Structure formats: structure tokens, C-alpha cells
Amino acid sequence: MAYPLSSDPAQACYLPLIDLTGLLSSDSQQRNAVAGQIGQACREWGFFYIYNHGIDARLQAAVFEQTRQLFDLPDEAKRALDKATSPANRGYEALRGQCLEPGAPADLKEGFYLGRDLPADDPRVQAGRFNHGPNQWPASLPGFRPAMERYHAAMTDLTERLMAGLALSLELPETYFAGFCHQAMATLRLLHYPPQPAMAAPGEKGCGAHTDFGGLTLLLQDENPGLQVWNHHAQDWVDAPPLPGTYVVNLGDMIARWTNDRYRSTLHRVVNLSGHERYSVPFFFGGNPDHLVSCIPTCLEPGEAPRYPSVTVEAHYREMYRRTYA
Ligand SMILES: O=C(O)CCC(=O)C(=O)O
Ligand SMILES: [Fe+2]
């Protein structure tokens, strides 16, 4: 088998597991204590689990229920929502629609993108700003839109708290990333992975090895494992299995740029060896499109040069979409 899952049970909790209770508290000492754990996880892994995050389990269940129903729709209904017809990158993408790992076969996943719903007469939509516009809603699923909109709003709040924790962990004011968070692009991505085929082509898998493009990603997984994270210590993949009640949080490339790689944007991939259909829902927090991402001065030693030029969020995203949807 090309991608054996680890048989080491200790790996189930290989990645740091952080209780978020203190970060959501009004006591700054408690927030600082959690920020310390976040900082360590960001330096060592760029990946960690969170629990006690405050997102309602019933809302999560509703999101999964609607996700399954969406992907169960006939092909024709899904293709009517094709994201290629949306200037704002919203809607359906078919199996093998993206190739996240250069040189590997296209990804064995189908997906659906949605974000904040902006009307066609919003100035940002009229100006053709990246990722700004109306969603495409499946007309035959009346429960879809309300569940997704509630979930998107709740995840935006939670991620803003995490960004404040991230600032604290870098010994910056909690509001340091407020400009980045203001009217942020935030994308909910619904994913469906069929079981890994027995006769897969070499390198073919659910989702090719990649780093995430944006700020923070919060991943909701169903009960089927498949996510693997690159362990730079051991130079090998470790499993990031679903743990009930948690999110897997990982840092995207913008945070590596901000911190001159002190905080890691770590490679990960999906190989669905579970034998079941796997559904997952990553929430990508991309930030304000006009925000300039430049190396944070306190992340440089005297004489150290920034490894990345400054870039706006929008320019960075356009380039990453161009590369992976060639
Ligand atoms: O489905 C997963 O577990 C991970 C998906 C992912 O890494 C992505 O969409 O960027
Ligand atoms: Fe990812």
C-alpha cells in the first residue's frame, strides 16, 4: 500500500491538544496562559487540536447533514452550481477539480465553496474583488443556507478569538490582527472524499500535500480518519485522526510570512483509507483583502532579513488559486 496509516496508537494525540476555555475567558491571565500553549504548538507543529471551543455540536451536526445531502444530489444539480460560473469562487467543484500537490494526480475529492453572501450591488462585488460576491445556494435543500450561514458566523467569531490569542502568543497586543480580521474573507469548504480506490494511480489520493494559503484554518472532520500532517522532526507523516469535540487548527502561509517562519505553515494531505465516504469541513480565515502581510518586526533578530516580500492578502490568494486550479 502506498500510504499506510500509522499503527502506533500513541500517535492519536501526537499533535498538541489545547483547552480553549481560558482563551474565551474575561481574565487576561487565563488568556495569556492559553496563548503560551498556542505559541508553542505554532513553533513546533503549526498544527494543534482545540476543544471547549464553544461551537454548538448540534450546529456542526446540521452542517454535516446538509453537506451529505448536497453531495448526494444528482450530478446535474451539482453542476448547475458550478463554481466556474461564479466570479466570486462560490459553488461546486467536481472530483479531480483541483491539484494541490504539484506533479501528483488531481485530488480525489469533490467540494463546495461558500463565504459571506454579498449582493451584486455591493461596491466590492462591482469592483470584482477576489472572492467577494453572492453564494450559490442549492434550491432543493431548504435547510442548507440557514445552517451554513449560522455556522460561518460562529466560526468567524471563534477564529477572531484565536487570532487575538495568536497575537498574545507573539507578545503583541491582542488587537494586533484587528485590521486583518476586519471584513475578512472567510471561506467554508465542504468536502467529500470517496474511499481511496484499490487501483489508485501512483500518488493519487484525496488531497495532495500542500500548505494552506491563508491565515488560520479550522477543520471539522467526520468520524473517518484520513488527514496526515508532516512531522518535520521525524521527516514522516503522522495521522491527525478525528477526536470527538475538537477542531484541528493549522496555520496558513500568511502566518509563516508574518513570523519569518517562526510559526510554521505545515504540509498536510488526505488519504482516505477508512473504506468509507469521508466528509470534512475546513473553515479558511483569509483576512481583509487589502491587508498588507509583512514580517512582524519582533519576529526578526537584529541583522535578520525577512524571507518573504510584503504582499496583500488579495494578491497572495489570486496567485495561490492560479497555481492550484491551472
Ligand atoms: O479534509 C481534510 O481533512 C483537509 C482538507 C484540507 O487540507 C484543505 O482543504 O486545505
Ligand atoms: Fe489544507
UniProtKB/TrEMBL annotation:
<dbReference type="GO" id="GO:0009693">
    <property type="term" value="P:ethylene biosynthetic process"/>
</dbReference>
<dbReference type="InterPro" id="IPR050231">
    <property type="entry name" value="Iron_ascorbate_oxido_reductase"/>
</dbReference>
<protein>
    <recommendedName>
        <fullName>2-oxoglutarate-dependent ethylene/succinate-forming enzyme</fullName>
        <ecNumber>1.13.12.19</ecNumber>
        <ecNumber>1.14.20.7</ecNumber>
    </recommendedName>
</protein>
<dbReference type="Pfam" id="PF14226">
    <property type="entry name" value="DIOX_N"/>
</dbReference>
<dbReference type="InterPro" id="IPR026992">
    <property type="entry name" value="DIOX_N"/>
</dbReference>
<dbReference type="GO" id="GO:0102276">
    <property type="term" value="F:2-oxoglutarate oxygenase/decarboxylase (ethylene-forming) activity"/>
</dbReference>
<keyword id="KW-0408">Iron</keyword>
<dbReference type="Pfam" id="PF03171">
    <property type="entry name" value="2OG-FeII_Oxy"/>
</dbReference>
<keyword id="KW-0479">Metal-binding</keyword>
<comment type="pathway">
    <text>Alkene biosynthesis; ethylene biosynthesis via 2-oxoglutarate.</text>
</comment>
<keyword id="KW-0266">Ethylene biosynthesis</keyword>
<dbReference type="InterPro" id="IPR044861">
    <property type="entry name" value="IPNS-like_FE2OG_OXY"/>
</dbReference>
<keyword id="KW-0560">Oxidoreductase</keyword>
<dbReference type="InterPro" id="IPR005123">
    <property type="entry name" value="Oxoglu/Fe-dep_dioxygenase_dom"/>
</dbReference>
<dbReference type="GO" id="GO:0046872">
    <property type="term" value="F:metal ion binding"/>
</dbReference>
<feature type="domain" description="Fe2OG dioxygenase">
    <location>
        <begin position="183"/>
        <end position="287"/>
    </location>
</feature>
<dbReference type="InterPro" id="IPR027443">
    <property type="entry name" value="IPNS-like_sf"/>
</dbReference>
<comment type="similarity">
    <text>Belongs to the iron/ascorbate-dependent oxidoreductase family.</text>
</comment>
<comment type="subunit">
    <text>Monomer.</text>
</comment>
